[in-house]
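quick q for whoever's on today - can somebody do inverse folding on this one?? i tried earlier but teh output was garbage lol. C-alpha cells:
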C-alpha cells in the first residue's frame, strides 16, 4: 500500500493510484474529463497547469504491448480527441506526451501542454521536471487554480457534447 497526498491535502492509502482513480475510489479534483470503455482521463491532481491531462487505462497493465487490440484503438482515438479539444478550446499549440512503463501506477499517459512561460526551463524532455516542480511550488495560488479548473470545465464540456 502507498500513501498518496492529493493536491487538496487529503491523504489516501492505495495499492495503485491509477486503479483507485479509474475505478472511482478516488474522485479526481475537477472530475472526469472524459471516459471511454477502456480509458479514463482527468486533470493531473499534483501539478496546477491548465489542460495537463492524464489518460489512464482502466485495466491494471503497465506496458503498451499488454493492451488488447480494442484497447489500442480506444487509446489512440481518445488521446487524439483530447488533443484536439486542448487545441480547440484552450488554444494549446503543442503537447508533450509522457508514459513510462516502470511506473508504480499502471498504464497512463501524461499530456503536458507547452506554454510560453515554460521555455525559460528549456525545451524538450530536460525541461519537463523543472516545469512541473515550478508549477507545484509557485503556481498553487487561488487565481491559477481557478484558471486550471476553468480550463478543465471547458475541456470536459467539449469532450462530452
Ligand atoms: Zn492499477
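ok took a stab at it. sequence:
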Amino acid at each position: 500500500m502507498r500513501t498518496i497526498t492529493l493536491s487538496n491535502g487529503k491523504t489516501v492509502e492505495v495499492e495503485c493510484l491509477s486503479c483507485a482513480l479509474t475505478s472511482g475510489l478516488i474522485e479526481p479534483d475537477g472530475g472526469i474529463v472524459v471516459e471511454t470503455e477502456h480509458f479514463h482521463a482527468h486533470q493531473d491532481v499534483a501539478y496546477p497547469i491548465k489542460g495537463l491531462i492524464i489518460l489512464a487505462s482502466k485495466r491494471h497493465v503497465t506496458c503498451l504491448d499488454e493492451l488488447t487490440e480494442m484497447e489500442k484503438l480506444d487509446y489512440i482515438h481518445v488521446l487524439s480527441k483530447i488533443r484536439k479539444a486542448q487545441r480547440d478550446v484552450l488554444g494549446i499549440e503543442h503537447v508533450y506526451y509522457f508514459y513510462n512503463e516502470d511506473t508504480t501506477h499502471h498504464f497512463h499517459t501524461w499530456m503536458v501542454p507547452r506554454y510560453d512561460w515554460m521555455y525559460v526551463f528549456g525545451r524538450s524532455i530536460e525541461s519537463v521536471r523543472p516545469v512541473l516542480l515550478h508549477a507545484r511550488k509557485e503556481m498553487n495560488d487561488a487565481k491559477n487554480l481557478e484558471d486550471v479548473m476553468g480550463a478543465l470545465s471547458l475541456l470536459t464540456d467539449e469532450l462530452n457534447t
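fwiw Residues 16, 18-19, 60, 106 surround zinc ion (CB under 6 Å). also The beta strands are 2-5, 11-14, 32-35, 39-43, 53-57, 95-98, 108-113. so keep that in mind when u check it
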